[in-house]
Design goal:
The complex is a heterotrimer of chains A (about 220), B (about 280) and C (about 250). Chain A is built from nine helices and no strands. Chain A has a domain of about 150 residues: MetI-like fold (Orthogonal Bundle). Helix content of chain A is about 80%, strand content about 0%. In chain A, helix 5 packs across helix 7, helix 6 runs antiparallel to helix 7 and helix 7 runs antiparallel to helix 9. Chain A has about 220 residues and is an all-alpha fold. Chain B is of the alpha/beta class and about 280 residues long. Chain C has one domain: Rossmann fold (3-Layer(aba) Sandwich). Chain C is globular, with a radius of gyration of 18 Å. The model of chain C has no long low-confidence stretch (mean pLDDT about 90). The chains are: A mainly alpha (about 220), B alpha/beta (about 280), C alpha/beta (about 250). Chains in contact: A-B, A-C. At the A-B interface, helix 4, helix 8 and helix 9 of A face helix 1, helix 4, helix 5, strand 10 and helix 7 of B.
Chain lengths: ~220, ~280, ~250
């Protein structure tokens, strides 16, 4: 396994770069989109609620590969130059955002309704109340499950391999098929994923500890 | 003290995993070493790896659930020649990427899966004599500016199959083109259709098969390599390999081989008869 | 122009008739106690005034805004009508000082310095100057409620609604909160207080409303007189129990 790692190190680094960029882009993207749809679902206007629920239910219940394939195969008819990396990252964002929306929704709903009422009675608009009072409290509750989503996201980025997205898994496939050392290659790939995900897990746990020191009322 | 320990723990965990993985990677494969001749004679079962997404060579017939094609018929003919008419021939679908691991792990006894005989592969497995002479070509959408492999200049994208010999070749013949590798033939063709690449490269026989599905695409520029297909077997199976080569000679001599060739390739327009052995 | 006017207001939760034909006019500077058995609609009535509950029919005018009109901007009403809750509802993620300054800064667009100067005055009014930097979770119930009142006052509202402000408090700290409410009353604030504190209703309030089953049963501008000689049969029964229990 070590010899595979050293011989093909540049390829693994290339793969790590793509995996890392896809993960970071998808992490930011899915957090923003997930937050928007979480707000859709809990807001008082029914049409927005319906849109939010439909979005979440659809993308939560379709395999990631199908979503990613859709962007790789179908969307280029409408958007030219949508390559495998972009299509895969968009797929990742949309798929993950559905789970994040669900997570954030649960977090928001676990914040005492009185907080929203107090903020509204204080003259704040709905969005101000969300931004300054409810969301900061929800975020604290949501950090551990959000951490799980992020780790899943990094692992799920291996979907890029199916779309020739140059990621770690893709490079692994190519190395395995040229060297025929399948077991060693995939073990090395697994190890590299661990190196990406373990620090992320520990970082989220650190955040969780630090944030929980500001206790709730 | 406590702080130190919590910092060391993740490292320890990582080290443990590396050790575990290294040990795992050393595990060997025993099934592949059993003598195929003896086992098939005993059990009357033989398992072949074939493509199931490649028209003309190995394609799943959705109505019957059977895999059909040139490779499948050749494998059946060889098996029956060696082990008798009543031998039970099983087919397992493989891709360019999975075929060698499956063979080496002993999941299958032999491969008839559009596989070119190459020196690199010979290091890993054994090949029979050539049973089909293919050549690599490219396929493009009708009306494309790309007329041959020479037109694959920088800025163009070529779709190929992971683990196929054609991907290695295209890097030599069109070094400036970007090569995107997909998992199987069907996916690569779908990617071509949705504009993910300017051309697709594979062996001519495979491309002609795709061409029959969708006449909007055409094979251009002829073949630029020779791709002799061989039956793949595990190293150490000398007895089996010898029997396969004898069987190949036998079915050529008695006309069975020609019948199979005619069945699959006589109606393929544009297919150059000379590439067939 | 009156501060608040209810004209034939009804409120339903599904089939439940929570408020029945409410007609009520509240003038500026009035200190009104709303009393009655639980489930009588007191809190619902209070919450309609700043739009936390929508009315089902009738007309409700608050500070010249028509609350039944969907075009009315509720935020403008809430800016002028504060609310103090039974369970305080201090912002759990903000310090005591931030709890008081957030509204003035974000809603009234005051500068941070100005808002903090005001907040410090209010903190000394409620007697909690030394708690400014703490998080709400570190305060006692009585302290929380005094901060909640300060938070309301910081918006310089035209009226403050109190929804059972002492019900969740330990008996020994109720006095501190009532003391603060008395100070606010002296400043001439319009106060509408849903309460079980009959002492406050009798001594500080200048009007008592008795509710039962979603209706206003008695409306008295002489609290002393009301407590001595209630007219309504349900009010008599209610007061009898309260006095008996205390």
């Amino acid at each position: 396994m070590i010899s595979i790692l050293t011989t093909y190190w540049p390829d693994f680094v290339e793969g790590l770069k793509y995996t890392l960029s896809a993960s970071i882009l998808a992490l930011i993207g899915s957090l923003i989109i997930g937050l928007i749809f979480a707000l859709f679902v809990i807001n008082p206007l029914k049409p927005l609620r319906v849109i939010g629920h439909v979005y979440i239910e659809i993308f939560r219940n379709i395999p990631l590969l199908v979503v990613a394939m859709f962007f790789y195969i179908v969307m280029p008819q409408f958007i030219p130059h949508l390559d495998g990396f972009t299509a895969g990252t968009i797929g990742l964002i949309i798929y993950t955002s559905a789970f994040i929306a669900e997570t954030i929704r649960a977090g928001i709903e676990s914040v005492d309704l009185g907080q929203m009422e107090a903020a509204r009675s204080n003259g704040m608009t709905y969005l101000q109340a969300m931004r300054y009072i409810v969301l900061p409290q929800a975020l604290k509750i949501v950090i551990p499950p959000l951490g799980n989503q992020f780790v899943n996201l990094v692992k799920n980025s291996s979907v890029l391999a199916f779309l020739a997205g140059f990621d770690l898994m893709y490079q692994g496939n190519l190395i395995a098929s040229t060297t025929f050392k399948t077991t060693d290659t995939y073990l090395a790939v697994g190890l590299l994923y661990l190196i990406l995900t373990m620090p992320l897990s520990y970082f989220m746990r650190y955040l969780e500890k630090r944030w929980s020191q500001g206790t709730a009322e | 003290m406590k702080l130190n320990r919590s910092k060391i723990r993740p490292l320890l965990l990582l080290g443990l995993m590396v050790t575990l993985l290294t040990v795992l990677s050393g595990c060997g494969d025993n099934l592949a070493q059993q003598d195929v001749m003896a086992r098939v004679k005993r059990t009357n079962h033989i398992t072949w790896g074939v493509k199931n997404d490649t028209r003309l060579f190995g394609l799943m017939n959705i109505k019957t659930g059977e895999i059909e094609g040139f490779d499948v018929d050749i494998a059946t003919a060889i098996s029956q020649e060696i082990f008798g008419k009543d031998v039970d021939v099983k087919f397992v679908p493989v891709t360019s990427n999975t075929r060698l691991p499956l063979l080496k792990n002993g999941n299958i006894d032999a491969l008839a899966a559009t596989m070119t005989i190459t020196p690199e592969r010979k290091k890993e497995i054994m090949f029979s004599d050539t049973y089909f002479n293919a050549g690599q070509a490219i396929m493009v959408k009708k009306g494309s500016k790309i007329k041959s492999v020479k037109d694959l200049t920088s800025g163009t994208k070529v779709l190929g199959l992971q683990g196929s010999n054609s991907v290695a070749n295209i890097k030599k013949y069109a070094p400036d083109a970007k090569v995107l590798q997909l998992a199987d033939t069907a996916q690569a063709f779908t990617a071509l259709k949705s504009g993910q690449g300017d051309a697709m490269t594979s062996d001519n026989g495979i491309l002609y098969g795709l061409n029959r599905d969708d006449p909007n695409y055409q094979v251009v520029g002829g073949t630029f390599t020779n791709e002799p297909y061989g039956i793949g077997m595990n190293k150490g199976q000398e007895k089996f390999a010898k029997a396969v080569n004898q069987a190949l000679k036998k079915i050529e001599a008695d006309g069975t081989y020609q019948k199979i060739v005619d069945k699959w390739f006589s109606k393929v327009a544009g297919f150059d008869g000379s590439v067939i052995k | 122009m009156s501060m608040i006017e209810f004209h034939s207001v009804d409120k339903y939760y599904g089939k439940f008739h929570a408020l029945k034909d409410i007609n009520l006019t509240i003038e500026r500077g009035e200190i009104i106690s709303i009393i009655g058995p639980s489930g009588s609609g007191k809190s619902t009535l209070l919450r309609t005034i700043n739009g936390l509950e929508r009315i089902s029919s009738g007309k409700l005018i608050v500070d010249n805004f028509d609350l039944a009109d969907s075009k009315t901007n509720m935020n403008k009403i809430r800016k002028n009508v504060g609310m103090v809750f039974q369970h305080f509802n201090l912002y759990a993620n903000k310090t005591v000082l931030e709890n008081i300054t957030l509204g003035p800064i974000k809603v009234l667009k005051k500068s941070k310095a100005e808002a903090e100067a005001d907040a410090n005055k209010l903190l000394s009014l409620v007697g909690l100057t030394d708690q400014a930097a703490k998080l709400p979770s570190m305060l006692s119930g009585g302290q929380k409620q005094r901060i909640a009142i300060a938070r309301s006052l910081a918006m310089k509202p035209k009226a403050i609604l109190f929804d059972e402000p002492t019900s969740a408090l330990d008996p020994e700290v109720i006095g501190d909160v009532l003391e603060v409410m008395r100070k606010v009353a002296k400043q001439g604030m319009t106060m509408i207080v849903v309460t079980h504190e009959m002492g406050f209703a009798r001594e500080v309030g200048n009007r008592v409303i008795f509710m039962a089953d979603g209706q206003i049963r008695e409306d008295s501008h002489q609290p002393q007189e009301f407590f001595a000689h209630p007219q309504d049969s349900r009010a008599k029964e209610f007061l009898g129990k309260i006095i008996h229990n205390s």
